[in-house]
Amino acid sequence: MKGKNMKSIHIKKLSPEIQSSDTDYKVDVEDLSNRWEKMTPDDKQDILNYLDVKQSFAWSHLSEDEKKAIYYISFGKWGPRNHPPMTVPEMVFKALVSLFLFTAFGFAMINYRKDKKKVKELEGESKKVEKLDASSPDEVSDK
């Protein structure tokens, strides 16, 4: 990260397992919600990595700005959560498409009922024809 947005953060030795000495790591997370969209992908990734490491320690070691930055990155309106509101033409288009689809579905259901009735009628007529053929086979052969 570059110059003026840098802030020195001291990560203290927290346990005997950490053998390294005190470390300075410079990342500015102050007012991140207003700067996030304008930042370069590399800067964003640096902040994500930094906060990921910081979260592995106790929350008491995080500053208020770091906690706000973590909250914003996790739940803020950026990326997939940043949906602009629908415009009037988009709403009209969505309404017309929905109306068309529901109308088509309604006509399909009406035609399905009519087709079911017609199938029953045709099955009844074919049974009548079969009964007539079965009852008088001689009359058909005479003609």
Explain the layout of strands and helices.
Layout lengths: L7 E4 L11 E4 L5 H4 L5 H15 L8 H12 L12 H48 L1 H6 L1
Describe the model.
With 143 residues, the chain is mainly alpha-helical. The chain has two domains: 3-81, no CATH class; 88-142. It is built from five helices and two strands, in the order E-E-H-H-H-H-H. The protein has helices spanning 32-35, 41-55, 64-75, 88-135, 137-142, and strands at residues 8-11, 23-26. It is rod-shaped. Pathway: Energy metabolism; oxidative phosphorylation. Residues 124-133 have a biased composition (Basic and acidic residues). Keywords: Membrane, Mitochondrion, Mitochondrion inner membrane, Oxidoreductase, Transit peptide, Transmembrane, Transmembrane helix. Residues 124-143 are annotated as: Disordered.
